[in-house]
Amino acid sequence: MFVSFIENFAVNEVLEPPQHPxxxxxxxxxxxxxxxxxxxxxxxSSPEIRGVRELRLGDIKNYDNDDNKYIEVxxxxxxxxxxxxxxGLLIGHIESRDQHYEGENYLPHVTWRLKxxxxxxxxxxxxxxxxxxxxxxxERIDPVVSRSRIVSVIDL
Length: 156
Hints:
Structural class: alpha+beta
CATH architecture: Alpha-Beta Complex
CATH superfamily: Cyclic phosphodiesterase
Strand order of the largest sheet: 2-12-11-1-3
Oligomer: single chain
C-alpha cells in the first residue's frame, strides 16, 4: 500500500497503521512484472507525484454506520489527483486487491473508528492542517493484526 502519515517514520519501522493518522493513497496490490526495487525506483523517479501537499481535515463523518467513522478531507481534490496519478503509473505493473476503493470510489479520509474499535483520538485532528512531505510504501506483515513494515519512504 502507499500511504501518507501525518507523523514521520523510517524504513523498516514496524507499526500498526490504524493507530497513526494516515491517508491511504493506493490500497493493497500485488506486483506483476516488476519487483519491489523497480517499484520504488519508478515512484522515486516520477515527477508527477512530487510536491509537498496540505492535508486539510474537517469534521467527523460516518462510513456506512456508526461502527466506522472517519475525519473528512476538505481538500480532497489534490489527494484524488495523487491517487489517480499513482494508479496510472502502476497500470500493468500491479494487480489491485481492493479495486472497489479506487478510481471514482476513492475517498480520501482519516479513519479513527473501525469496526466499532477506536483506533486513535480524532479530537486533535478535527479542523487541522497538516503538511505532508512523504509517501510511504508499506507491507502488511501480520495476517490478523494490522501490523505493517515501512518498505520505502519517498519524498514528495
